[in-house]
Amino acid sequence: MCSKIARAKNSPVSKCIISSIVASIFNPLGLISPVGVVYKIFLQQLWLHKLDWDEQLLSELLNQWMYMCLRLSQVNEMVVDRLVLAKGQPTEIQLHGFSDSSEKAYGACLFLRSVNQQGEVTTKFFTPNRELPQ
User: Fold this and answer.
1) Hey, which residues does 101 pair with through a beta bridge?
2) N-terminal to C-terminal alpha carbon distance within the chain
3) Digit-coded pLDDT (tens) for 4-45
4) CA gap 82, 2 in Å, rounded
5) Which residues on neighbouring strands pair with residue 121, listed in sequence order?
């Protein structure tokens, strides 16, 4: 994905390039859904501006996109521990769910909280988010 962003910096940035980058965000577990939904909302903005597929972005949108590209590269630094429950034998397991929405998107998350015999607490969260159609 970073190579696509690098190419985007060296050529006119269009709705076509941005669509390709947004579609290539691989998120099978939904762990980066809060990040991905921002890019999908930006793509919706491009459609609302009625830009042609290969038309270069307006300077305001281009500046916003370049900032977003810098932030997207930070996702590669994210580390996810595969251990879901507390180490050892869990003595307590709780599942908490939350949801919220706005005019642009909705989201929900689940927190799995476990406590082991030594009293160590482990909390993991899972979150699918979706943008709303315009």
Assistant:
1) 106
2) 27
3) 555 555 678 889 989 988 888 877 777 777 788 888 899 999
4) 25
5) 115
Domain spans in the chain, listed from the N-terminal domain onward: 2-77, 90-129
For residue 52, give both structure tokens.
């042609």
Tokens of 2: 């970073």
Q: Residue 58, Cα to own-chain centre: how many angstroms?
A: 24
- What is the rounded CA–CA span in Å between residue 115 and residue 93? 7
pTM of the model: 0.69
Who's near 63: CB < 8 A, 6+ residues apart? none
Dist CA 34 CA 3 (whole Å): 22
Contact 107, 33 (CB under 8 A): yes
pLDDT tens-digit readout, 51-63: 889 899 989 999 9
